[in-house]
Amino acid sequence: MPDAIHVHPHDVRDEGASRVVEEITNRTGLRTIVAEVVTLEERHPYPRGQLPHNPRHSVIVSRATLEVPLAAGLFAGLSVRPLLSSAARAGEDYLQTLRAAAQPHGTAVIPWLKALNGAFAGEPEAICVRIVGGKPIATWLCPNRAETAEVVSRLAQGVLERHPATAVLLDRFRYPDWSGAEVAPERLLTCFCDTCRELMEKDGIDLVLLETELARLTALAHRDPRLLLTRGLPLPARDALEHWLAFRQKSITTLVTTVAERLRAWGRETGHFAGELWLNLWPPSFAPLLGQDYRALGTVCDGAKHFPYHRLGGGADLAGLVESIAGRERPALREEVFRALLALLRLPGAPTLESFLREGFPVEFVKRETALAKEAFGPGTPVFAGIQAWDTPLEEIGTACRAARNGGADGLFFYCYGWAGLEALDEIGRILAR
Ligand SMILES: [Zn+2]
Asked: What separation in Å is there between the alpha carbon of 218 and the centre of ligand 1?
């Protein structure tokens, strides 16, 4: 059972690689570290609190930069290249330091890459996703652009050539959700770039109907979100939306298949990589909305981690979405929007928005989502469950682990070293020793 723990670059830079590896080894007993190679636009820890054992920072905000110094020439001829962090620009390779410290402990370091989402140098607007109406999201590449598969493949190859690994975790093969540097629900409405519009029309999508409907729904959301969430859509509009969601899933599956084939072929030809390709996926209840089709992806990857962080609402910032739709001032409307969203996504109910903000989903959510993922993947492809080890009472770490195992998880990926307190790391050690 490949249990693992996630580590961010600042953990290693601020605490020192030896200390990070020793704390993980001594407290948790884990021998697999999943190390972030491209960061997100993210507050650490998310969404609140302080880094409990970082000696230099109480909070860090990362900027979606590449943290390993790959040569710019690797991306020659392409519209974009990942933007290097200042440390990587100075030649520092934190992954190298971490691997050197991990090696004497027999600990594996798995690179964790972000595929479509990141900060890019060059001309991101040439190949990034566009919201209905045409506004670009410059930090998110369009899955249907031919160059995108090339950017992602070269990034993975560059990292794996420098850092041989038994597996690689590929994240953010999907469309944008509503959160990023800020909460913005219209980010859900991509991609309407020229390439996608052409492909959608070829696929038989009625673009005029789809765009009119999305514009109408957006206007309704601003005017009265209750109507948006409670009134059923007319059938042609519902068909167009479903067709669009299916098109998005097909687009992501095609891209993942292309990148996986290229990486495996490159690994065979060069001898640089013969490991497993793991995906990082949203829990199954959210996945189809973001372009992730578990059934199809399960046949392409060698395993996947999903992240049903129950206290956070399954990794989704539901509270942020509710607030951005209903505003802060109208508690009754917020409650209504929250209930409607749960119903829309067929999610288990927290009794009220207030209790959700306090306690998240019931821990049963971890079992349910893991079982759904297992069912979609079938017995041959492992599912690893992300376990929330921060911003949660200690006893719930164990409850979440049991729930994941009862759902059929093939491994537990603890999230994450830097956000969890040392007592949480000790608790992980006790759970895994049982
Ligand atoms: Zn597009």
From this structure: 20
| Residue 84 CA, ligand 1 centroid: distance in Å | 25
Residue 233 pLDDT? 67
Task: Classify 129 as helix, strand or coil.
Answer: strand
Question: Rounded to the nearest whole angstrom, what is the distance from the C-alpha of residue 116 to the centroid of ligand 1?
Answer: 12
Q: Ligand 1 centre from 190 Cα, in Å?
A: 7
Q: Largest Cα–Cα distance in the chain?
A: 62
Report, as ranges of residue numbers, the positions in the chain whose pLDDT lies below 50: none
The runs of H, that is alpha helices, within 300-416 are 318-326, 331-344, 353-359, 364-377, 394-406
CA–centroid distance, residue 133 to ligand 1 (Å): 12
Query: Does the global pTM surpass 0.85?
Result: yes
Give me the domains of the chain, ranges plus CATH numbers: 4-433 (3.20.20.80)
DSSP character for 45? S
The pair phi, psi for residue 258, each rounded to 5°, is -60, -50
pLDDT of residue 20: 98
